[in-house]
Amino acid sequence: MSDAVRADALLAEMPKDGRGRLKVFLGAAPGVGKTFAMLQAAQAQLRQGVDLRAGVVETHGRAETEALLVGVPQQAQRSLTYRDVGMTEMDLDGILAKPPKLLLVDELAHSNAPGSRHSKRWQDVRELLEAGIDIYTTVNVQHLESLNDQVRAITGVQVRETVPDWVLQEADEILLIDLPPRELLERLHDGKVYVPEQARAAIDAFFSQTNLTALRELAMQTAAARVDADLSRRYRLQGQQAPTLRGRLLVGIDASEGAERLVRHASRVAERRHLPWSVVHVDIGAERDEQGLGYLQAAQQLAERLGGEVISLRAGEVAKTLVEHARERRASVILVGRSRQHLRRRYFGRGLAERLLALGQGLEISVLDSASELLPAPRRASAPLVWRDYGLALLAALLATGVSLGVSRFLELPNISMVFLVAVLLVAVRSSLGPALACAGLSFLAYDFCFIPPVWSLTIERQQDVLTLLFFLLMAALTGNLASRQRRQLEALRQTQAETTALLDLSRKLTAATDRQAVLAAALQHLSGCNELEISVLARSDDEVWKVEAGVQRLLTEQERAAADWAWQHERAAGLGTGTLPGGRWWWWPLSAQEGPLALLGVSPKDQRPLAPEQRRLLAALAQPLAQALERAQLAQKLEAARLHGQTEELRSALLASVSHDLRTPLTVMRGSIDSLLTLGESISLDDRRELLQGTRDEAERLDRYIQNLLDMTRLGHGGLALARDWVAPADIVASAVQRLRPLLAPLQVELQVPQQLPLLYVHGALIEQALINVLENAARFSPSAGRLRISVDSDAQELRFSVSDQGPGIPAHEREKIFDMFYTAARGDRGGQGTGLGLAICQGMIGAHGGRVSVSEGIDGHGATLCLHLPLHPQPVLDDEQ
Amino acid sequence: MNTRNQPTLLVIDDEAQIRKFLRISLIAQGYKVLEAVNGSDGLAHAALSKPDLVVLDLGLPDMDGQAVLRELREWSQVPVLVLSVRASESEKVLALDGGANDYVTKPFGIQEFLARVRALLRQAGGAEQAQARISSGALSVDFAYRRVTLDGVEVALTRKEYDVLAMLARHLGRVVTQQQLLKDIWGPSHADDSHYLRVVVGHLRQKLNDDPAAPRFIVTEAGVGYRLLEL
User: Fold this and answer.
1) pLDDT value of residue A348
2) Chain-chain contact of B222 with A766 (C-beta, under 8 angstroms)
3) Segment B72-120, tens digit of pLDDT
4) Is A736 on the interface with B (CB under 8 A)?
5) Nearest C-alpha of chain A: how many angstroms from B195?
6) Cα angle vertex A708, ends A704, A713, to 5°?
7) Whether the Cβ atoms of residue A108 and residue A139 lie closer than 8 Å to each other
8) CB contact under 8 A, B198 and A736
9) Size of interface A-B (CB pairs under 8 A)
């Protein structure tokens, strides 16, 4: 035995992730004393000081039971009204609001009143268990889903309230409450068993000695099967070989009435033999009517409830596909039904079971005979379609006869049969096997009637003609069969291919989508192909507010919202067509990743009918890549945020370093000058004093510019730079910048080349001015003393350019890109001269924000550098004639 | 109102250093100076002492400078000079529209500040309203004849050009917001058509032979409006 298997068993033994423990008090029939036993056990727990509460307990007014309720704290019931009838149900939310350690829940199979969160009480119990509450509950054996048929067979009573078997399998403890039938009957006669008055007749029939004995045996078997399962689990825990080899049970179902019964049987067999099981339906592309579809869906839903796996396959042939699938899944048993409806198959081909036996060497093939009491299946509902096909068959036979008569003069007798064969083949390809055979039959008659001597009679003269006719019939049947099967396979393939293409298409779109919005848009575009469905994708924020992220915006009703909440919390489907809060118009499917739900897919059929399992399966298949794509998008977003954060931190520290350096320089000059004036004022010459003061003022102005740059940088850095655009004359911008920099520019020869006729700019004036100031300051800093500095403005139809040229050292071509990087100067250290290095980066940021760019070229007479600010021009405003 | 010879100025600013250098400079220019450290204090002083001019910092500890301005304007027409930071043109425009008469941007030079003070005190005297003619250096505007001369030579202006220049001249030395100009000259529906103004001012500068980079007459106050220099 491998360690993995043992580890699995150990894991299963452990309390599942904070889940509560479930103890089931199982009885054979009402009145055996389940509630009584449960309350006794509760009293024992109460004495040990366990915090327990009774969620719901039905005493049916029996004194001895009521006595046991004394001292048990009770959860108040929730009252609700449905169609003016007042009802009470277990208050699920009340219990969850203040959860006890142990809760008593009587009658597990109870169906909740409409308007409750779940339609069944066992669903309530599942939620309570998930919330970590231990549960004591009671159930009678006839309520177990898989025993439903057997119970009906035994008692003749159809039990409507059922509990899926896995609830029992999940139970940590099962207690069989046994009472010999004779004693139970005595109790019944003494009136100690609660029986509703209106059902007395039925109940009396139910409580017969034979029924009770059979039910008792059923209950014991069930408990024993559980004990068996427990035992083999313990074997595995101890690392010993389990008595049975694991395999898998495959049950093949078709769209017939017996499918449900087959599923129930399979579930029971699987339970008894401790096998995982799958329900396989092979779709051979045959037409199916509403009713057949209904049977199939019901059987598949039942299988889901019973804990089986539901698989749909598309292929041309059932037996081969089943066997192949069985081998793939290492299944050991295939179970199929034998139905009396397939008379045709009986006589024209081997039955499914026979073919399985022939193909499935090494597999165990079980066949369940159809239930004898079942009525013959009603006629197919799709009659018009079938009649049309048979009409086609008739037409084809007639045409073939006509053509044959036409060509009979040129062709020999045996060759004429070819014309009829063509007709049969055509019908087989166009419709299905039945019409093809009909066409073969008709052709056979027509051939005989018109061509086999004696002509114009059905009698046959020569013996060899009988043989010819028989061969013809055989050929027609065979080719018809072949062609129709071929066609079915083709159609099945086509549909599978369409679905695969759809999935591939979606995954390709999803791969291309990089962020959440794009993923959702792609998914929505894909799903919008279904016209009869409304699609919506929701997400819930931490404060529990729903937001429609994509798709249909529709106000949700209270119940739809509750279903969405539930689906989100429990990461399971809820709403329309499910057992949980089915009242609304929406079916919710959570798109979950490992960390929890990422979004909720909402589907609302326009006809408001629940989705077919086929549709659900398709949607769920699409949901998986969708959830993965969403997770990927989220991850990418987080990574990007982390990267940005890192970059910002890097920038911040570089900025702090350079700012502290650059702000201190002017301050040092100012403080030094002023100190000199204060202490040495008298001894300094008047001119020197003036110079010191002027220096202080210039430095103060420089400080002001740095601070302005810092402010601008924060404005740019937050990305929230709102441009307050207005019409501005370029000359005003130049003038304002030059004036603000007058002290800095004073030692230079400034040449202004600003034409008088310039178009107006539609910009945020202050920002462009600051950009120009930064360029000018940069030029002034690198200019030799008394060097020339040229400021020129020119424009063409598209853009307006501010150019600043100096005679400084210039910028080597390979550095021209870098000078706009933040802190480029700062990175070069003090050699870079004054300045934070922010200036040009900010300049580029501001020009960029206006849709312009900054370029670098050579300066005056091949020396120095020219920086040019390019700004796009907007259509000039129209002026009134008046001006 | 105090005597014409020694106008009283109220400085409302919470920064002691700024109050100090303003006080020293203003007293040196022969003004009387009152100081207030916050808005409510300032309003009380303004009510009691009836200053000839209020210097108001927009960033005050107790209340917003704009609020002080609003309250003051409810009962007084005293000229107000606002101290503002550069980054916020909208603040300046808001203050000017809210009744402030002019502004200086921090940090400012004392020359500039004193020029504003002089211009505002002259307005308070109601001097140019009555004047039929205003001159600034070589430029002179004759309101009675709607005539503009430069160095004694008449300059031919269109109606709009004349209107703009005349309005600036009536506020000689003080800023006029572009909204004021547009509303008064083009009408309220054109308050946002700043391009009219840009074009007209451009033409005016050409005709007055004025260089925007070294203005002799019309100064552009970026984002706010225009000012006719007082020479």
Assistant:
1) 44
2) yes
3) 999 998 999 998 876 667 788 888 988 899 998 888 888 889 999 998 9
4) yes
5) 5
6) 150
7) yes
8) no
9) 74
Q: Which residues pair with A534 in a beta bridge?
A: A604
Spatial CA neighbour of B81 closest among B29, B22, B166, B134: B22
Of A145-149, A336-340, A791-795, B161-165, the one with minimum mean pLDDT is A336-340
CB–CB of B213 and A731 under 8 A? yes
CA distance A847 to B113: 33
Q: Please answer yes or no on whether B193 and A700 come within 8 Å at the CB atom.
A: no
Share of chain A above pLDDT 90, in %: 5
The sign of the CA dihedral A517, A521, A523, A524 is positive
Hey, is the C-beta of A746 within 8 angstroms of any chain B C-beta?
A: no
Residue A562 has a CB neighbour count (10 Å cut-off) of 18
Q: CA A16 → CA A170, A372, A842, distances in Å?
A: 10, 44, 59
Q: What is the mean pLDDT of residues A813-835?
A: 56
CB contact (8 A) between residue B86 and residue A882: no
> Position A35: which residue type?
T
Angstrom distance (rounded) from CA A868 to CA A795: 12
Question: A575 near A581, Cβ under 8 Å?
Answer: yes
> In A772-821, where do the E strands start and end?
788-795, 799-805
Instruction: Give the SS3 label for residue A872.
Output: strand
Tokens of A579: 């057992």
Amino acid, res. A409: R
Which residues fall within 8 angstroms of residue B177, CB to CB, at 6 or more apart? B93, B96, B97, B224, B225
Contacts of B201 in chain A (CB under 8 A): 729
Instruction: Decide which of A353 and A245 is more confident.
Output: A353
For A580, which DSSP code?
B
Q: What does pLDDT average to over chain A? A: 78
Q: Which pair of structure tokens corresponds to residue A817?
A: 């890109």
C-alpha B92/C-alpha B65 separation (Å) is: 11
Answer whether residue A242 shows pLDDT above 60: no
This prediction has a pTM of: 0.44
CB atoms within 10 A of CB A714: 10
**CA–CA separation, A727 and B190 (whole Å):** 14
Tokens 């008064």 locate to: B184
Q: pLDDT tens, A170-185?
A: 788 888 888 888 888 8
Reference A128, options A19, A231, A213; nearest CA is A19
| pLDDT at residue number A373 | 41
Distance of CA A78 to the CA centre of its chain: 34
pLDDT tens string A527-579: 776 667 788 888 887 777 888 887 777 777 888 888 888 888 888 888 887 77
Q: Is the dihedral of CA A540, A546, A550, A552 positive or negative?
A: positive
DSSP class of A242: P
pLDDT at A345 over 60: no
List Cβ neighbours of A414 (8 Å cut-off, separation of 6 or more): A468
A760 touches chain B (CB under 8 A): yes
Residues A620-634 have a mean pLDDT of: 80
- Minimal Cα distance from A697: which residue of B? B109
What is the pLDDT, as a whole number, of residue A835? 52
Tokens of residue B218, six digits: 């019309």
Residue of chain B whose alpha carbon sits nearest to that of A877: B195
Give kind and range of the element (H or E) at residue B195: helix B194-207
pLDDT of residue B165: 93
Provide, rounded to the nearest whole percent, the portion of chain A with pLDDT above 70: 84
> How distant is the Cα of A784 from the closest Cα of chain B, in angstroms?
23
Is the pLDDT higher at B79 or at A681? B79
Within 8 A of B214 by CB-CB distance, chain A residues are: 735, 738
